[in-house]
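Input.
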Amino acid sequence: MSGFDSNGYYNEEAYNYFRMKAVGGAAMVIVGEVMVDLENGRSHPVQIGIDDPAAAIGFINLANAIHSGGAAASVELDHGGCLSGLEFLNGRNAKGPSSFVDEWGDTCEEMTEEDIYHAADMYAQGAARAKEYGFDMVMIHGGHGWLIHQFLSPLTNFRTDKWGGSLENRMRFLLLVIEKVRAAVGPNFPIDIRISGSERVEGGYGLETGIEIAKAIDGKVDMIHVSAGTQQVPYSAVLMHPGVFQKPGENSNLAAEIKKHVKTPVCTVGAFSEPEFMEQYMEETGVDCIAMGRQLIADPFFPKKLMRNQLEDIRPCIRCTECLSSLIRSQRIACTVNPLIGRESEYFHPLPQPMWHRKVLVAGGGPGGMEAALRADQMGHEVLLCEATGRLGGALKFADAGGFKSLMREYRDSQIDKLERSDVKIRLNTPVTREVVERFEPDVLICAVGADPLRLPIPGADGENVVMGTDLFGHELPGKNVVVIGGGLVGCEEGLQLAQKGFHVTVIEMQSELAPDCGRMHRLNLLHELEEQEHLTTETGLRCSAIKADCVTALDADGQERSFPADWVVMAAGMRARKNTVEELRPLVREFYVVGDCGTPRTVMAAVRDAYNAVIDLGQ
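Output.
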């Protein structure tokens, strides 16, 4: 979802992105990160100010789009405060509760009394506009390190006047905003407020303070939306959006405890995607509702599938946080497992049905091949999927290692289950050859044969003590000391898994940084987990020179040799596309598509999107 036209206002992609959530069965759809004061409170490019008159028609269209899908519409009102971006402030410094210089050397100025009341008034005016534009509720964002939270937090509020010091004083701005918003929208218009139930970081406030904040606003708002964390501290921001290393409902205990102390309905959020867990949680805690983000990106129809008991059709979120990372990287949301995200208009304005149905041969049963086969089958084509090995999943076989890969395994097994329930014909232990093509006589061949692991050209690389990263978890590793050659995403995750199993692991990376090929949010999470592992060390800027029976040697930038003990060595130095196989198959059919790693080794998301793009062309 890019969601913005050339002038920075909502476009049809945005309308369809939110409308799809409503059509999928969500009771309420919230339009996030709407700024109440665009001139003073904008933190990054993909934000619109509700105070901008030119944005009015976009908000009206958004509310209408959500309503057309059958859901109520809400809008999240926000202000960046000291997190406001300097590039949007025309040479001014950002302003927040207190003056300080942040870790990037940027200065935040202390807000004056006039500034504080102006900001509160902007929240009120924004809420009034939201009501005027047709929204059914507003959410005041009082968490995650934005302006209201900055007043609440001892990490950012060092004032000694009536706006700082005691918790009572630190809550004064929050209560002022609520008072002004209520006056602006009237008594019968619902107000939701999101708070961080705990900042989950040293020096920040904990659950006890979160409870006191909730008690202070009890009865003054219509729902208390309990999240966690602060953008002020990177790992706290990770816990705000729990990833693969965190448990389901990572922050759900916060809402559960706060619910015991207030009469106002309480909402929880964060890493909810498992139906049984969600149902049990609500029954046991009495929490009134669950807010979902990433699961409704992975599968916008998750609520309807729950209501219809179609659990086997759910496309599970794997919590890779690529949606957040892609938004940070390119101001556009994408999803590893759902290629329709970012192109929702194709759902509401579908391409014409195929003019004729084709015979489609898919070579390779990895993530790209499985997605291609499923999509082609849904379009009514006759599909044969051939996999050279004895099982589907391709590169996703690494998910059998369990642990933090369990969500990827769930996704893989879900795709396999969908294939087995489809009309796709599956042939295992069947590499696609000229003979297979001649026997099936396909109109189209989708080539998704994957890639091979690279084996470094160094002495000892073909030794018996070396296992390729792609085959790692099919081996019993002797001894305790393991060296992982390659500190990209794969090498770091495999090293982490080995350390969690009790091995003493050294990860050696040639570049100066670990996991440079990793999305920002997952990388923050991964690096933290690596640092927390007692028996794992990482070495960067080293070029491996030899693998011996009991060690690995490597050269630093000065040419000095270092040695690392190794009973076993894992080679995770990258992948090489199977281009020879691609070129052998290409001349055998008129219509030929290359999908996934056999074109260029990339990510699961790239393979799935390649597959989607290939299949929508069929029959046109």
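The first helix runs from residue 12 to 23.
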